[in-house]
Amino acid sequence: MITCPYCFTKVAPGRIAFRCLGAGGRAKGCAPRPDTVLGAFRGGAGDPVLPPVFTARRAGRRAACPSCSRESAWRVCPSCHSRLPAEYCANPGKIVALVGAKHAGKSTYIAVLVHELMNRVGEELHSSIVPCDDRTIERYKQDFAGPLYGERKLLLSTQSAVASPRDPLVYLFTRTVGRLRRRTASLTLVLFDTAGEDLRQREMSELHLRYLSAADAVIFLLDPLELPGAHAALTGAARARSGTLAGDLMSDQMDVVARVTELLRGKSGKLTIPAAVALSKIDELRESMERQSALHRAREPIGALDLDDRDAVDEQVRSLLHQWEAGMIDRYLQQHYTTYALFGLSALGSVPEGEAVARSGIRPYRVEDPLLWLLYRFKMLHGVRR
Ligand SMILES: Nc1nc2c(ncn2[C@@H]2O[C@H](COP(=O)(O)OP(=O)(O)OP(=O)(O)O)[C@@H](O)[C@H]2O)c(=O)[nH]1
Ligand SMILES: [Mg+2]
Ligand SMILES: [Zn+2]
Ligand SMILES: [Zn+2]
Fold it and tell me: What is the pLDDT of residue 239?
């Protein structure tokens, strides 16, 4: 089964649909027409005008259009008509769901994580990250990299998908592995930028439900500024900014974890998908942490998962949670997940100045840690003890 990375419907490989290539050059083909299915799925202005979609009796990599007989290799999801990239059909990778309460830092995290995977971390891991479709390229530029890296402005609060449905960003992440670096292993990262409130609605949208149930791993972002017990650990300025959402039901960090877990669980028993639980905005807390502590050090770029460092960070975040009377989160995770790990990270690396990123620039801190751990769990990265 392949999960459509756009609408998250599960499709048997033989049921993948095709889109006619239409006329081109000297080749005759079907005329383009409004695609109402794709239009309805995108929920935006008007239906895109494209050649028609058809199903093939025996669907392989290509099929002949029943109306014009032209061969097409343009594969689409039968349910939403989004294009399914060839690489994705060949290697339908893991779907990583990213969730967190409103204002937890999800969008900023996506923007910075992708940037790091393209640059610094990509070099370290000998990996490449390639957008799977044009909309991913456009959206990343327009909604993430443009404002944050271009204008150095903080991102706007994500609009609820109810008001404006959005496509996920879909990337193919490929590593060369093995001795002599002869093999490659890939992972499809489907990053669906949810608005905090979408995860809180009693009637969560069907799209979100499908997204969560298709997930092979989940990353929870917790905002330490909104954990009541963390208040004392904050510096003056951060303290002033914290707890601003206290009256807002959506800000309840734990509640999102519980809601999402309930949804994922379905049946009884512990969840077996790995859960990475990260405190975001850790830059706000660093002054109050011991200088020798794991979260004060940068991770060493050794191209593998440093298991000792992993243990130390896990331990430190656990003790922070307990210190902040948020130990309940830890106990809850232990009860519901067979595998989970705790992280502390900062996408921006320093406290923003008003609506802009700090003058010192964006200096991400340990943003890749959850992903390295997931890669390790998926056997795409070695772990080392030192
Ligand atoms: N200090 C610090 N603040 C951050 C960091 N990342 C995000 N923030 C702050 O958190 C705010 C919210 O970040 P977003 O990325 O928009 O959060 P979100 O989870 O996408 O929020 P919604 O889309 O509204 O659900 C930003 O405007 C920043 O003020 C960080 O790494 N450090
Ligand atoms: Mg957002
Ligand atoms: Zn689909
Ligand atoms: Zn045709």
Answer: 67
The fourth-level CATH superfamily of domain 93-384 is P-loop containing nucleotide triphosphate hydrolases (3.40.50.300)
Q: H or E stretch including 19?
A: strand 17-19
Percentage of residues in the chain having pLDDT higher than 70: 90
Considering the chain, tell me which residue range(s) the CATH 3.40.50.300 domain(s) occupy: 93-384
Q: Which residues is 54 bridged to in the sheet? A: 18
Residue with CA nearest ligand 1 atom 24: 157
Q: How many helices (H) and strands (E) does the chain have?
A: 11, 18
Whole-angstrom distance, CA of residue 88 vs CA of residue 91:
5
pLDDT at 37: 94
pLDDT recorded at residue 365: 94
Give me the count of residues in the chain: 386
| Pocket (CB within 6 angstroms of ligand 1) | 100, 102-108, 154-155, 157-158, 195-196, 280-281, 283-284, 346-348, 351-352
Tell me: pLDDT of 175 over 80: yes
